[in-house]
Design brief:
The chain is an all-alpha fold. Helix content is 72%, strand content 0%. It starts with a helix and ends with a helix.
Length: 272
């Protein structure tokens, strides 16, 4: 049973990749399932937001329009309190990040065997549909935030101001301190990028593993004896409780991702 459980989890942790994976994290391969599901969720996110905006009316809003307007107002208020500058692009960006990450996280709420089973009917033997449980995916998002931090740092302060800040902050303008200032600032940018991607990856990867372990409890449904009945009840109860709790994780991790994106871009608007 231990060997079968290991094979089950290993199978579900294997991506549909360009080459065979040799480790959990491998940046040398293209994980096609991560690309397909992340892009699909982004298209769905943009389509739903576009549809809500296109069908918006000035009269009494419907339930969907009301929900979207409440979400837009909430994100706009968060952006206003954090970013002190032009938020024409930043507020919609934060809204897109939140909704996109919610949709990607929500894939983890689908039964773990359903999508791989459907893929198997078409000859696809490996499929890992949760893109945020792939460090390639989450670091891709955080690298996009890094580029925006640099972009707004240059836009707000200019090339000279941005470059000067790299070398004179935070220790001072003495030329002997320039290497230390630059190194510290580069480490800060790197730490923000890595921590932003690792936080989402770690939480969703751990949640995915728990779903796999709960799914393994289904293997003890062997009959109608007392042990099997208790196992069936434990399987259902554990799965339901973790599913309900995971709904909060899905929303919380998306909110944290959105807020940190706003915080980092807001810091790029400010000087040391």
């Amino acid at each position: 049973m231990a060997g079968q459980a290991t094979e089950y989890i290993t199978h579900h942790l294997t991506h549909l990749s360009s080459v065979k994976q040799t480790s959990i994290v491998d940046f040398s391969v293209i994980n096609y399932d991560t690309v397909v599901f992340s892009v699909s969720m982004l298209v769905l996110c943009l389509w739903l937001l576009y549809t809500a905006a296109r069908k918006a009316t000035s009269g009494v809003p419907g339930k969907w329009q009301c929900a979207v307007e409440m979400l837009v107002d909430f994100v706009s208020e968060q952006a206003k309190s954090i970013v002190h500058g032009d938020r024409t692009f930043i507020a919609p960006l934060a809204l897109t990040v939140f909704v996109w990450v919610v949709f990607m996280n929500a894939i983890d709420l689908i039964p773990v065997d359903l999508l791989p089973m459907i893929a198997g009917m078409f000859g696809i033997h490996y499929l890992r549909p949760l893109p945020v449980a792939d460090l390639n995916g989450t670091l891709g998002i955080s690298c996009g935030v890094l580029l925006l931090m640099i972009y707004y740092g240059i836009k707000v302060k200019g090339f000279s101001g941005f470059g000067k800040e790299l070398f004179v902050a935070p220790f001072g303008n003495h030329f002997l301190l320039w290497p230390f200032n630059c190194l510290l600032n580069l480490i800060e940018y790197l730490a923000k990028t890595v921590s932003l991607g690792m936080r989402l990856f770690g939480n969703m990867y751990a949640g995915e593993l728990v779903f796999f372990l709960i799914a393994l409890l289904g293997g003890i449904w062997a009959g109608f004896d007392m042990g099997s009945m208790l196992g069936a009840f434990g399987h259902f109860a554990a799965g339901l409780c973790w599913w309900l709790f995971h709904v909060l994780i899905v929303l919380l991790q998306a909110f944290i991702m959105m807020m940190l994106t706003l915080v980092y871009i807001g810091q790029a608007h400010e000087g040391h």
